[in-house]
Each structure stands twice: as structure tokens, then as C-alpha cells.
């Protein structure tokens, strides 16, 4: 018999597990992600508190069976009802309750989502469950959650900019500064799809998202000593080696999700032995720590 410590799953979207066997994502790698995303939008159309909690219980239980004892849940499906304040951010507690019932350690990565794209200042109708009007409103909610969870031994908090596609630069700077001031981990999706790079360059003077992050956001810290080891960028499938080297210098973590990136035909990131790598199951089409690391 061999004993191993529990695995850490650094990046999960638990509700994506419900798309297993349902997504028809086509034959072209460049199209797979975007077709899959449309199926994801259909999934969240009628989601409610009990449905989300049940999905999370099933997903977290499978993780425990696979030897994963800690999960970073990159959570952005926040709202059950846009017509009532009672339905605002209420779905966050469904994820927390599910983790506590299953007994898995949860880092709730509370995620800011504000727009549909680099050139689309408003969200799309199907994204209303994700959205927050202002970064100040989002931070106020994070503060409320931190207060509720301060005596919870299983659940801790991190925060995320969903992506630079979904959050404007000024708001991303504010959230980065808040993370610094409160010693909170900060995550974001980065350069998973070529279209993300193309769209970013059009409105940011030719800069890739990684360059915007490094030059426009991370240079706006307010503390004298910045601990970038609390920053995790997810995917980096199409990130230039020059920018990955800069992440190494700044001790920024790169989370790759091989099962998802392979399933969606995203590509293979240009990693080397010096990168600070962690692993995630992302869309949870397959929950297997060994496969992800092999």
C-alpha cells in the first residue's frame, strides 16, 4: 500500500461537468471552444440553487474519488434571479454548501465578469447570471462572503478577473490592488484562444492579453513589495515564451488544464522546466489527476 497526499485541483468549473456527452463541438479546433461555449450558455439558462448545488455535489464527490482533496472553484454563475435582490449572488452559497456536504476543501475563486468582449462594453443576454455592474459592488460582496466564511475550516476565498475579454483594464487594476491589499490570490483566464489575442490587439495598440496584464495592470500595485506568487494565469495556450519568461521572473503561476485543452483542441502551451505550473480539471469532462499530470 502506498500513501499519497491529496491532490490539489487548481482550476475547476464544477457545473461544466453536466456537458459531458452533450457538446457537439465540431471538427475544427479553432471552432471547438466557441461551439462548446454556446452549449454552456444553454446549460445555465434554467439553472437554480438546487440544480447547481446537486451538480457541485456530484462533481466534488467525483474529485474526492479521484484523490483530489482541495479544489479551486473558479466560480462565475452568481445569480438565480435578475428581477429580485434575493437572487443576486445567491448561487455562490450553493457551491459552498455542496463542498461542505461532500467534505472537500474549497477555495472559492469568486469571479468578476462585466462585459461580452474587448469591443463589447455590455454583456450578452445569456451572460446575465455572470455579471456585476461595478467592481465596487463585487468587492462589497466578496467582503460579505469573507465575513461569513471566517470560521469555516473547509472553505477559503480567492478572487478572479474572469479574463481581460470580460473585464475592462481599469476594473482589473482595481481588483488587482484589492487582492494585494488583502493578501488574496488572484486568478484569470489568459490566452486560451487565438481569437482572444486578435480581439485584444485591435483595441490595445497591438498588445496581447499577457502584455496588457504585465504592462498595464501589474504595474499598478500600491504596495512597496508585490507578492506576485499569489497570481495564477490559467491556460496560456497561445502565450509567447517571452511573456512566460516574465511570469517566471515575477513568480506568477501558470495553471494548465490538459484534459480540457485537449478536448477542445486549444493547443499546447510553450512551457519549460522553469515555469511555476499547477494543474486543473477545468470543464471536468474528465476528472483524473494522473492523466492531467502525465
TrEMBL record:
Residues 3-287 form the Amidohydrolase-related domain. Keywords: Hydrolase, Metal-binding, Zinc. GO terms for molecular function: deaminase activity; metal ion binding. GO terms for cellular component: cytosol. Its cofactor is Zn(2+). It comes from the Eukaryota. PANTHER family: AMIDOHYDROLASE-RELATED DOMAIN-CONTAINING PROTEIN (PTHR11271:SF48), GUANINE DEAMINASE (PTHR11271). This is Amidohydrolase-related domain-containing protein. It comes from Meloidogyne javanica (Root-knot nematode worm). The lineage of its organism: Eukaryota, Metazoa, Ecdysozoa, Nematoda, Chromadorea.
Amino acid at each position: 500500500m502506498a500513501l499519497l497526499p491529496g491532490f490539489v485541483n487548481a482550476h475547476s468549473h464544477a457545473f461544466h461537468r453536466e456537458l459531458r456527452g452533450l457538446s457537439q463541438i465540431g471538427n475544427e479546433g479553432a471552432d471547438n471552444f466557441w461551439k462548446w461555449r454556446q452549449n454552456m450558455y444553454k446549460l445555465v439558462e434554467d439553472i437554480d440553487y438546487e440544480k447547481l448545488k446537486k451538480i457541485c455535489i456530484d462533481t466534488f464527490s467525483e474529485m474526492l474519488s479521484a484523490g483530489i482533496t482541495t479544489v479551486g472553484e473558479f466560480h462565475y454563475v452568481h445569480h438565480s434571479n435578475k428581477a429580485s435582490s434575493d437572487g443576486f449572488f445567491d448561487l455562490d452559497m450553493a457551491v459552498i454548501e455542496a463542498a461542505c456536504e461532500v467534505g472537500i476543501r474549497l477555495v472559492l475563486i469568486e469571479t468578476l465578469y462585466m462585459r461580452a468582449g474587448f469591443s463589447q462594453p455590455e454583456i450578452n443576454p445569456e451572460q446575465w447570471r455572470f455579471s456585476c455592474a461595478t467592481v465596487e459592488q463585487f468587492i462589497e460582496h466578496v467582503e460579505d462572503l469573507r465575513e461569513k466564511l471566517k470560521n469555516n475550516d473547509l472553505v477559503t476565498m480567492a478572487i478572479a478577473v474572469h479574463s481581460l475579454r470580460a473585464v475592462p483594464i481599469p476594473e482589473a487594476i482595481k481588483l488587482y490592488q484589492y487582492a494585494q491589499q488583502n493578501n488574496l490570490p488572484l486568478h484569470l483566464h489568459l490566452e486560451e484562444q487565438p481569437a482572444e489575442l486578435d480581439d485584444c490587439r485591435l483595441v490595445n495598440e497591438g498588445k496581447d492579453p499577457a502584455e496588457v496584464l504585465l504592462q498595464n495592470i501589474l504595474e499598478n500595485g500600491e504596495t512597496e513589495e508585490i507578492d506576485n506568487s499569489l497570481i495564477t494565469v490559467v491556460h496560456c495556450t497561445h502565450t509567447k515564451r517571452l511573456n512566460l519568461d516574465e511570469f517566471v521572473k515575477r513568480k506568477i503561476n501558470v495553471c494548465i488544464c490538459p484534459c480540457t485543452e485537449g478536448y477542445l483542441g486549444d493547443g499546447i502551451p510553450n512551457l519549460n522546466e522553469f515555469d511555476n505550473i499547477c494543474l486543473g480539471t477545468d470543464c471536468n469532462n474528465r476528472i483524473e489527476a494522473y492523466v492531467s499530470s502525465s
